[in-house]
Design goal:
It is a single chain. The protein is an alpha+beta fold. It is built from 35 helices and 32 strands. The strands form nine sheets. An eight-stranded antiparallel β-sheet has the order 4-1-3-2-30-31-23-32. The longest helix has 36 residues. It is elongated and about 125 Å long.
Length: 1018
């Protein structure tokens, strides 16, 4: 077939133009995202019960729910947490589970358990989680200060008044709806809004003087809030609908209610003080110092980030013009991160291609040959991108890194084909014969090289969990690029080689003073290696224990560390403060780091988000996102906050985590290094005193590790004295209704106002606990009985958060430390819990174990890859011994890679291990060609030593060129300017070191091992 194709360059060119056009069109429609689309098999059940303590929620709601949900099929892990007012259960499922069916089953389990739940509790919410539910960005909106000096303007913009409540209605009803109308938006999650309530505060003296009670007030309000069905009246040939409506819609409607008491008509406004004000807030949101509302904008899975960014900028530009009194600002913008990262990766791709081309021109010194090899790069990349579009792979960090890894290897096949065709032409064959025979001779080893390289990528797909799904894109990127380059080198390059040299009667001479002479140093080094064969073998044997030593010493973690200039700060004040005091303290802290920060968003107290992209916090906690100009400024800001807390609020605890981007959430880099799960001997959560003793002991023994104190809260509990209530003739309903009234929780009905409802409440204007006990309640005879006679107040301490999992309930201690320290802590804990009469048992979890699990899986993948390599090589060479000769270089390469990582202060992580796996498939390509050439020469009758030297001479330049092009294509990744480059740095360093050492091994040691094995047979 090739002999016919080379005579039809126009037909081949037309086919290539068609492929290029389709590839360019496909490029426009390939989705661009930060990471591949990954469905996280996770379901979260949220239960909200305002006014209940963490212990009550755990016992009455979360524990029964957890028992039911553990029966759901395919649950891999289940964890729950209860806190004041709310609790949640998070279920993680096996990869590949059908989340839609599981969602139905979870709802069925909840329905079964609803009979055992508190009657006043709303049905728990069930949320299907996905990695792509991570917000693309957050939109903060707040009211502008129209006049800094005007107190009216300051009140309009800053205070939590009616104007801010109207802003909340505007955000829900207008802003979120307009954003959700964008085709790229999946949903908008909102927090920070505040509603209003109409409060009726009775004038008790006036009520008592005319003989009315608060019950009469409540009844009057309820009776006036009615809506009757419409009536139909016929009048001759016409029909009329009559509608009776006495519905209360505004504060004025409530004020104008009439009460007929003993023939006297009284209006409600004469008996009560009726006020409309903002409802009590358990949480706030601030942008810098402004009271704000934040909206989390979530992208459609198949939408392009760039399109969403463009649509959002256009929409915000319109809204800024339409609403000049409202400020709009995007924060935590994933699209900027994506744009910057993808731009840098593309730049690295272009630089890598340019460096590879320079190497080709440097070695070839013939523009025709260099042009042919360079042609391989765009053609192979376009074919790869077209394949991406067909099989549905997006442009992301992982797939682009696969392309960049492929760039250096794309030209390898073309270099080998051109070198072999040119060598045969110089040996006297006709041009056409040299082309056909040259391609046929190297096609089998090239195919073997591609298969061996692909064979080490494909096992990456079988990694467990998200990592396996994630690196599917990289494996497919490299595989497609290599097969595309093989097709181009075998079918396209020969056609244009024949076209460019068809008028030449003789092959161009290789000798040139300008060419780099590699043969003289090669012969000298080969001579030294063969003279010191024993030294080389002893060194090889010694490298095996040294490799194990370095691997034992080097730090191991799941993913490489990525530098950031922003952070998520979580503060727990460790005392039951109100949301307003929480807000004041956060503003005090943010004022202290004002010079270091560019922007900040403070989420203070409980938030209203539906999805779990933001940590679930209580009224005495806060999550603050702030961005600084640089990493140094960020570290300085962190130090300032820690100092301020130690000085002013020593009981508070603070932790800094990476801001939630897709990379962090997929790989769980915020996971603590070690989680100690404590239980008592009965398998239950230990009491607070026991937990405190243990943490104090741990803190004493490990002074350099930050150990959080046991977080507790004080609860006030009112116990009704049933005997006293019987004596004073007060019913439980009367007491309960009066207590709700005193704390302004006696809700009569709700006024529906569009997307929200306004509660109408009968209450008081004083909600302090001491005033509540000093108030009174009317008994059945109308006598005022002091509440303090009927109720006993008790105060108790309990855990602030109650956690549980597969093994039951436990108390968790989260620690961050290096591997050696983690191992020391675990040994100490084991000794502590195995003491005679020990009160505790302990189990461990955390990043220490997940990283090792991942490393074990990658080691298994490496073993599988080596086995596949051996099978392929054995099939190619029809030998059981020669594959061992080729795979021997893995020992040397792995040693140098681990040693260099250790010297550079890098860890063994997923990326460096993947680098080792990938390296094992790339570095042996040169050895495959070398062994194949030696075998061909020996079959042609050449003596062993002459065959080794001749094969080394013939393959020297192709091996050096292919290695340099691969190394230089990856070289731009040896910088950490963005997340993509930082993520690829360990992989790139591993590949560059492995390729450099592997080239030396292929050139000098593989021939030595071949000679030592076959010299007796020769």
């Amino acid at each position: 077939m090739l002999s016919k194709i080379i005579h039809r360059p126009i037909a081949v060119t037309m086919c290539l133009i068609a492929v290029v056009v389709m590839g360019c069109l496909a490029l426009r429609f390939i989705p661009v995202s930060l990471m591949p689309d990954i469905d996280v098999p996770q379901i979260t059940v949220q239960a909200n019960i305002p006014g209940h303590s963490a212990k009550e929620i755990e016992q009455r709601v979360i524990s029964p729910l957890r028992g039911q949900l553990m029966q759901v099929a395919g649950v891999k892990d289940i964890r729950s947490e209860a806190r004041m007012d709310a609790g949640h259960v998070v279920m993680t499922f096996e990869p590949g589970s059908n989340v839609d069916l599981l969602f139905i089953e979870v709802n069925e389990k909840i329905d079964r358990s609803m009979n055992t739940m508190p009657k006043d509790m709303e049905r728990p919410k069930v949320i299907k989680a996905s990695a792509m539910d991570i917000p693309a960005f957050y939109l903060d909106i707040w009211l502008k200060r129209t006049d800094e000096k005007s107190p009216q303007a300051d009140e309009y913009a800053e205070t939590a008044g009616l104007a801010f409540a109207q802003l909340g209605r505007f955000a829900k009803g207008v802003v979120s709806k307009r954003i959700e109308q964008l085709p790229q938006t999946a949903m908008v999650d909102i927090s920070g809004t505040v509603g209003t309530e109409i409060e009726c505060i009775p004038d008790y003296e006036k009520l008592q003087s005319i003989g009315l009670s608060t019950q009469d007030i409540e009844n009057a309000i309820k009776k006036n809030n009615i809506t009757l069905e419409a009536l139909s009246v016929v009048d001759g040939i016409f029909r009329y609908n009559i509608h009776f409506d006495s519905q209360l819609l505004t504060k004025e409607d409530v004020e104008d209610i009439y009460i007929n008491h003993e023939g006297r008509l009284l209006q409600l406004k004469d008996l009560c003080s009726i006020k409309e004000h903002i409802a009590q807030q358990n949480g706030k949101v601030r942008h810098n110092k402004n009271n704000a509302i934040t909206l989390a904008i979530i992208k459609q899975n198949d939408a392009q980030m760039a399109d969403l960014q463009e649509s959002m900028e256009a929409l915000l530009s319109e809204m800024r013009k339409e609403y000049p009194d409202i400020q709009f600002e995007l924060t935590r913008d994933q699209t900027h991160l994506l744009t910057y990262t993808i731009k840098n990766l593309k730049t690295n791709l272009y630089v890598g291609v340019l460096l590879a081309c320079l190497i080709l021109f440097l070695f070839m010194r013939q523009w025709r040959l260099s042009l042919l090899i360079v042609l391989t790069i765009p053609l192979s990349l376009i074919l790869t991108l077209l394949s991406f579009y067909i099989i549905g792979i997006s442009m992301n960090i992982i797939s682009l890194s696969g392309l960049i890894l492929g760039v250096g290897m794309i030209v390898d096949n073309s270099i080998i084909v051109i070198d072999n065709m040119m060598r045969r032409w110089r040996e006297g064959e006709r041009l056409q014969t040299a082309i056909v025979n040259g391609v046929r001779e190297v096609f089998a080893p090239m195919l073997s090289s591609v298969l061996t390289t692909c064979s080490v990528f494909l096992p990456l797909i079988f990694l467990s969990g998200i990592a396996g799904t994630l690196f599917y894109d990289q494996a497919m990127g490299v595989t497609i690029a290599l097969f595309a380059s093989l097709a181009v080198a075998s079918l396209v390059i020969p056609v244009y080689f024949h076209f460019l040299f068809r008028k030449h009667h003789h092959a161009p001479t290789e000798e040139s003073k300008r060419q780099i002479n590699l043969y003289r140093p090669y012969k000298s080094i080969m001579g030294w290696v063969f003279r010191h064969a024993r030294t080389c073998l002893i060194t090889l044997v010694c490298l095996i224990p040294l490799t194990l030593f370095f691997f034992w010493q080097i730090e191991k973690e799941r993913m490489p560390k990525v530098d950031h200039d922003d952070t998520l700060m979580t503060i727990d004040w460790n005392m039951g403060i109100a949301a307003d005091e929480n807000d004041r303290r956060i503003m005090e802290l943010m004022n202290g780091i004002e010079k270091e920060t560019v922007t900040s968003t403070s989420m203070i107290g409980a938030q209203d988000f539906l999805l779990s992209h933001t940590k679930d916090i209580t009224a005495s906690e806060a999550v603050v996102y702030f961005k600084t100009p640089s990493k140094k400024k960020l570290e300085k800001a962190k130090e300032k906050i820690v100092e301020l807390l130690k000085e002013r609020y020593p009981s508070a605890s603070v932790e800094f985590n990476e801001s939630g981007n897709l990379y962090n959430l997929i790989f769980s880099t915020n996971e603590s290094d070690l989680e100690i799960h404590l239980q008592d001997q009965d398998g239950r959560r230990p009491d607070i005193a026991t937990a405190r003793r243990f943490t104090d002991t741990l803190r004493t023994h490990f002074t350099d590790i930050a150990i959080m104190p046991v977080l507790t809260e004080t609860n006030i509990q009112y116990m009704a004295d049933m005997e006293q209530m019987a004596i004073y003739k007060v019913s439980y309903e009367q007491l309960y209704s009066r207590l709700k009234e005193l704390i302004s929780k006696n809700e009569i009905f709700n006024i529906n106002d569009g997307a929200q409802s306004i509660p109408v409440i009968v209450g008081t204007d004083n909600r302090e606990s001491d005033r509540i006990l000093n108030s009174s309640v009317k008994n059945g005879e109308g006598v005022d009985i002091p509440i303090v006679y009927l109720v006993k107040e008790t105060r108790g301490e309990d855990y602030k958060r109650l956690q549980a999992g597969n093994s039951g309930e436990y108390f968790s201690i989260d620690l961050n430390a290096n591997d050696k320290k983690v191992e020391q802590i675990m040994r100490y804990v084991d000794e502590y819990v195995h003491q005679p009469k020990a009160e505790l048992s302990a189990s461990f979890a955390g990043g220490y174990f997940s990283s090792r699990q991942m490393i074990k899986e990658l080691a298994l993948v490496l073993s599988v890859a080596l086995a596949l390599l051996y099978f392929i090589l054995s099939a190619q060479f029809e030998s059981f011994i020669q594959p061992f000769i080729i795979l021997t270089e893995m020992v040397i390469d792995v040693f140098f890679v681990i040693a260099v990582l250790w010297v550079f202060g890098e860890s063994v992580n997923v990326m460096s291990m993947i680098g080792l796996v990938v390296m094992s498939g790339i570095i042996i390509n040169d050895s495959i060609l070398k062994i194949d050439s030696i075998n061909r020469l020996r079959r042609g009758g050449a003596p062993l030593l002459r065959a080794i030297m001749t094969a080394g001479h013939n393959r020297l330049k192709p091996i050096v060129m292919t290695s340099l092009t691969t190394i230089l294509a990856i070289l731009p990744f040896l910088q950490r300017g963005d997340m993509g480059s930082a993520l690829q740095y360990p992989l790139s360093l591993t590949l560059i070191v492995g390729m450099a050492i592997g080239t030396m091994v292929s050139l000098f040691l593989i021939p030595l091992f071949y000679y030592l094995i076959y010299r007796k047979r020769a």
